[in-house]
Amino acid sequence: MATVESQIVIAAPIDRVYAIARAVERFPEFMDDVQSVEILEEDGGRRVSHWVGLIEEFNRTLEWTEEDYWDDEDHSCRFQMTEGDFTAYRGTWTFEEGEDGTAVKLTVDYEYAVPLIGPLIKRLLHRKVQANCDNMLAAIKNEAEKD
To answer: How many folded domains does the chain comprise?
Structure first.
């Protein structure tokens, strides 16, 4: 399984940053590579959502359903795909308040097992997943730092 990690510091209070990240259904409003997010179930900190992401380089979309567990006290989230185009997809969000703002870390473990997929395509996919995580945090930063 491959892992990507992305980190950023956002000049905004932790509660604001956490609320923006938790409102995944709003991601298509400010993230170009997220076509749609639909909340299917919600019960306290547990949320099930269906995602459609765009991969322009491959001229296709990826779809998956994931189950998230948001911990409002700890300002963290664990998520895992329950079905979809990836073979496996799971990870964590962490939020920590510091002197310069809120430090956000997103870690994603994924597997995309396609028969005969070559090392070149695997490297391209890894760069795309990394770029997606980086872009997601940058978009949250932009949204949180708006006046």
So the answer is: 1
H or E element, residue 27: helix 27-30
pLDDT digits (tens, 9 = 90+) for 52-85: 988 777 778 889 999 999 999 999 999 999 999 8
Question: How many angstroms separate the most distant Cα atoms in the chain?
Answer: 49
Strand partners, 43: 46
Domain hosting residue 35, numbered range? 2-144
Under a CB-based contact definition with an 8 Å cutoff, are residues 140 and 21 in contact?
yes
Strands (E) in the chain, as ranges, are 2-10, 34-43, 46-55, 60-71, 76-84, 88-98, 101-111
Query: Whole-model pTM?
Result: 0.90
* Contacting residues for 58 by C-beta, under 8 A, at least 6 apart: none
User: At 113, which CATH number?
Assistant: 3.30.530.20
